[in-house]
Design goal:
Elements: E1 2-3, E2 6-7, H1 21-53, H2 56-71, E3 74-79, E4 82-87, E5 93-98, E6 102-107, E7 110-117, E8 119-127, E9 130-138, E10 143-149
Antiparallel strand pairs: 1-2, 3-4, 4-5, 5-6, 6-7, 8-9, 9-10
């Protein structure tokens, strides 16, 4: 075939192009391995997520530690299920109460700081000259109802 005085040659299609059977089997083995490991990875991620999100016990302990350390030098009283502490050196009044499924602290009646969330019920009371808090909260698996001595 002649075109403008030059010769155009058709390219020969080689039979050696493409994947060999060994290359295809190797790719298939890698794909099957990755697909078989994927469910294990997902289940481990779910387990770690469950472990890391179940920290209610730690939050309760930290909340109690805060209340104990803050009220150590205060004069305490119970009013309507709330704990009222008066700091004699600064003359500030701190109140600890249950409000909207949370345990909160107010200073001089203004604003509040959330000490503990996911609380079903909480009340402060005095018994035998000791101050207590009765906490009812729900963690991931069960309801807990415990009584803690504050002072």
């Amino acid at each position: 075939m002649k075109y403008s005085g030059s010769c155009v040659h058709s390219r020969d299609v080689s039979l050696n192009e493409g994947f060999t059977l060994i290359e295809m089997l190797l790719n298939l083995a890698i794909a099957v391995t990755l697909i078989s490991i994927f469910p294990l990875i997902i289940s481990n991620i779910a387990n770690f997520k469950a472990i890391s999100s179940d920290n209610n016990d730690i939050n309760v302990e930290l909340c109690l530690r805060d209340i104990l350390s803050e009220t150590r030098q205060m004069s305490l009283a119970i009013e309507g299920g709330s704990l009222i502490g008066t700091d004699n050196s600064t003359h500030k009044t701190y109140s600890y109460s249950f409000h909207q499924l949370r345990l909160v602290r107010k200073v001089d009646g203004s604003g509040y700081i959330i000490l503990l969330e996911q609380v079903k019920n909480a009340r402060f009371f005095k018994e035998n000259n000791h101050f207590y808090i009765q906490l009812e909260w729900k963690d991931k698996w069960r309801m807990k109802n415990e009584k803690f001595q504050i002072r």
